[in-house]
Amino acid sequence: MNPLIRQHRYAFGVTLRRLFAQPFSSLANILVITLALAIPLLGAAALMSLRPVASHLAADPEMTVFMKVDATSAETDAVADRIRRDHAGEIEDLRTVRRDRALADLKANPAYAQALAVLPDNPLPDAIVVTLKGEDLAKRSEKLAAIWKTWTKVDLVQVDSAWVQRLEAILRFARAALLFLAVVVAVAVLAAVFNTVRMQALAQREEIGVARLVGATESFVRRPFLYLGAVSCAAAALAAIGLVAVVLDPLNAALADLARSYGTEFALRLPQWEWLAAFVVGVALLGALSARWSVTRNTRF
Predict the structure, then answer these.
(1) pLDDT tens digits, one per residue of 162-211
(2) What does pTM read for this prediction?
(3) What is residue 281's predicted lDDT score, i.e. its pLDDT?
(4) Facing residues of 94 across strands?
(5) Phi/psi at 118 (nearest 5 deg)?
(6) For a surface tag, which of 83, 204, 260, 286 has the fewest beta carbons within 10 Å of its beta carbon?
(7) Which of 238, 176, 236, 175 is nearest to 48 (CA)?
(8) HEC string of the chain?
(9) pLDDT (0 to 100) of residue 301
(10) Apex CA 54: angle with CA 147 and CA 87, to 5°?
(11) What pLDDT shows up at residue 158?
(12) What residue ranges do the domains of the chain occupy?
């Protein structure tokens, strides 16, 4: 067997023995890291689940293209067909509101009926209501409005940007908050592993001293501690995934009624397995990094 593989195998075995030698301390440390990791993981699940349904809330991302008053129905239909043809990939829905229908709807409202009754002609234009889909709606809606305004017989393009900017601001805030939370959790994990490895190094002080006297290298001495940090954090990451998976069931039950009130189906789901695998590996590497830092500082004796 390759000597390097044999050394890693020995270090891994030493790590497991040390973990099982102090089961209560090991479980308590893993539990603390698990709870810390579960919070950003739950936030990531919520954010990733929200993104596909954000555009299907009650406040749909709409733009209204107002035609000139003298535009005919054929010219309005031509503009609507051009929008469908040129921007098919960006449009969720498109409908045309005829000027006569718009006037009838206003007259049905008592607040406007008396004022409209004295008008000799219909002052309202035809309108084309376009529902967008996808992401980055604010910038895209402004770009589309600038294009459509230049078309023949188009008088005005109104962008319902207030809710778009509000929605994207909420998502940006959620991403920033999640990033900040991830940084805080990373620091907490570093501190927990650093302290655990420090306690282990001090407890193994005599053993490390004897190993150095018989010729053990620094890598040989430190390797079990690196495995200790990596194994503890990997176990905590897996436990955090399991904990979040369990917590999502009651959360989804509570969210079901709220989602139905918006006319949609929404449920929180864990990210895809590739993302979760990267999460476990990243946390394990973070634990190994913290362990190396700790053992370097606390085995200089």
Answers:
(1) 665 666 677 778 778 878 888 888 888 888 888 777 777 666 666 666 66
(2) 0.59
(3) 93
(4) 130
(5) -90, -5
(6) 260
(7) 175
(8) CCHHHHHHHHHHHHHHHHHHHCHHHHHHHHHHHHHHHHHHHHHHHHHHHHHHHHHHCCCCCEEEEEECCCCCHHHHHHHHHHHHHHCHHHEEEEEEECHHHHHHHHHCCHHHHHHHHCCCCCCCCCEEEEEECCCCHHHHHHHHHHHHCCCCCEEEEEECHHHHHHHHHHHHHHHHHHHHHHHHHHHHHHHHHHHHHHHHHHHCHHHHHHHHHCCCCHHHHHHHHHHHHHHHHHHHHHHHHHHHHHHHHHHHHHHHHHHHHCCCCCCCCCCCHHHHHHHHHHHHHHHHHHHHHHHHHHCCC
(9) 45
(10) 25
(11) 83
(12) 3-55+166-298, 62-159
Q: For position 52, what pLDDT does the model report?
A: 60
Cα 109 to Cα 66, 93, 117, 127, 227: the distances in Å are 21, 27, 12, 19, 73
> 61: which 2 tokens?
């991302």
Nearest to 288 by CA among 238, 222, 240: 222
Residues 6 or more apart whose CB falls under 8 angstroms from that of 29 comprise: 192, 196, 232
Return d(Cα 239, Cα 38) in angstroms, integer.
Answer: 9
Q: Which residue numbers in the chain have pLDDT < 50?
A: 58-59, 301
Tokens describing residue 138:
């604010």
d(CA 184, CA 176): 12
